[in-house]
Amino acid sequence: MPSPTATRYREQLGLSYPAASYRLIRKLLFSLLVESKRAICLRCKQPIDSVEDMTIDHMIPWRNKADAQELFYDIENIAFSHPRCNSSTLRERCRQGHLFADDNVLYDANGARRCRTCNREKMRRAYHRKKKQRG
Ligand SMILES: [Zn+2]
Ligand SMILES: [Zn+2]
User: Of the candidates 32, 20, 31, 83, which has an alpha carbon nearest to the alpha carbon of residue 57?
Assistant: First the structure.
């Protein structure tokens, strides 16, 4: 059961108090980024236009790392990206089911991720096809 206070805050803010606080902090952060001309996407290098278009991104991914907490909170490891570019909102695996581990990710010019294993397979298939054609 939510407390009467929590219910009242939710009625007044339209969101739970923690959710509203988080939203406010994001807005504040975005306005500071714009002011300091840092509202640029880490991955695609295009401007981030609105707070809805901003996600907090980690340059070095922290998931499944021994030093996950260190990486997660390290300010030097923080950058900003579009939701569509953010590594954490993307799938963990490629279409063929290969894990997007650090050593299995390629970034194309748009900042989109490519699976290195699939890429290698594709190159190999193309190579063999060419070989066959030459006879
Ligand atoms: Zn982007
Ligand atoms: Zn793959």
Answer: 83
Nearest-ligand number for the alpha carbon of 119: 2
Distance 20 CA to ligand 2 centre (A): 39
Task: Give the CA distances from residue 19 to residues 13, 14, 27, 43, in Å, rounded to whole numbers and listed in that order.
Answer: 10, 10, 12, 27
d(CA 83, CA 44): 11
pLDDT digits (tens, 9 = 90+) for 92-126: 778 788 887 777 888 776 666 788 999 999 999 99
The angle that helices 4-13 and 17-35 make with each other, rounded to 10 degrees, is: 40
Radius of gyration of the chain (CA): 21
Domain borders along the chain are 1-37, 39-90, 93-135
Non-local CB neighbours of 54 within 8 Å, separated by 6+ positions: 26, 29, 30, 33, 39, 48, 80, 81, 82
Q: Which ligand sits nearest to residue 39's alpha carbon?
A: 1
Give the global pTM.
0.60
